[in-house]
Amino acid sequence: MRNTLIIGNWKLYGNDLIIQNLINELNKTLAEISKCLVAIAPPLLFIDRIKKNIANNIKICAQNVDIHISGAFTGDISIKMLKQIGVQYVIIGHSERRIYHKENNDYISKKYALVKSFNLIPVLCIGETELENAQGKTREVCESQIKCILDNQGIEAFKNSVIAYEPVWAIGTGRSATPLQVQHIHKCIRNYLAEQDETIAKTVTIQYGGSVNEKNAFEMINQPDIDGLLIGKSSLNATIFTKIVRIAEMKRT
Ligand code: PGA
CB under 8 Å to 182, separation ≥6 — which residues? Predict the structure, then answer.
């Protein structure tokens, strides 16, 4: 059985007020939550402080990791350091990194392997652009983003892992995909993995991300193959984020 997983991706946002509000609200809300897993992915600078003040059952997620363990790589952070500060999940291949940092499938596959080798959980972001969507290539694009890891590491690498389907055109635009569209593509993703191993495919948590808010969360989360949500903007507002966590806790099973 897959647990519902809600991750708040703060991106390059956050300040004292946001941190304090989120810590207070999450600590209160998490006392009522038993089924849903909750993680936050703040900028690295804040992690230590947040960890010291937040309830133990809130997991910490990193937004990125370098492919090197150590060395002369100015500005980068290693998986070993992330593990040391208590990170449990690492976002890999977010479209903002694919676009602004030119990260390709091969490079992302290396990061994925590294995260797994340190026994942390990769959150592999995949998804099509607006043009690819208009060309009917959604499934093809998602499969090619997964295939690279399958080819390099095999289906075993997906055991208990997390894939976040995030159509690029839905991120930060206020234009989310519809729950039925998302359910359809999530089912395709799971079937694609099941072609290799049905049992492992069932263990994969498939999240949706892209303009999730407190209004569309209920319908999203109650689709059978939507196992969680990766939330950007709405995760910075303590009231909205905790509302979504409560909605996710009530997912019909
Ligand atoms: P958004 O971002 O919720 O602001 O659309 C989602 C994401 O980029 O993970």
Answer: 165, 208, 220, 223, 226
* DSSP character string of 78-94: -HHHHHHTT--EEEES-
CB-based contacts of 210, cutoff 8 Å, min separation 6: 127, 166, 167, 169, 170, 171, 173, 176, 177
User: What is the domain class of 5-251 according to CATH?
Assistant: alpha beta
Residue pointed to by tokens 């600590």: 27
Q: Any idea where the domains of the chain sit in the sequence?
A: 5-251
Is beta strand 205-209 parallel, antiparallel or unpaired with respect to 58-62?
Answer: unpaired
Q: Could you give the residue numbers annotated as active site?
A: 94, 166
Residue closest by Cα to atom 1 of ligand 1: 232
Ligand 1 centroid distance, CA of 95 (Å): 10
Is residue 233 lining ligand 1, measured as CB closer than 6 Å? yes
Residues 132-165: tens digit of each pLDDT:
999 999 999 999 999 999 999 999 999 999 999 9
Digit-coded pLDDT (tens) for 187-200: 999 999 999 999 99
Per-residue DSSP letters for 89-154? EEEES-HHHHHHS---HHHHHHHHHHHHHTT-EEEEEE---HHHHHTT-HHHHHHHHHHHHHHHH-
Ligand 1, atom nearest to 171 Cα: 5
Length of the chain: 253
Q: Whose CA is nearest to atom 7 of ligand 1?
A: 232
In the chain, % of residues over pLDDT 90 = 95
d(C-alpha 207, C-alpha 210), whole Å? 10
- In the block, tokens 């596959």 appear at 109
Give the tokens for residue 88: 């449990």
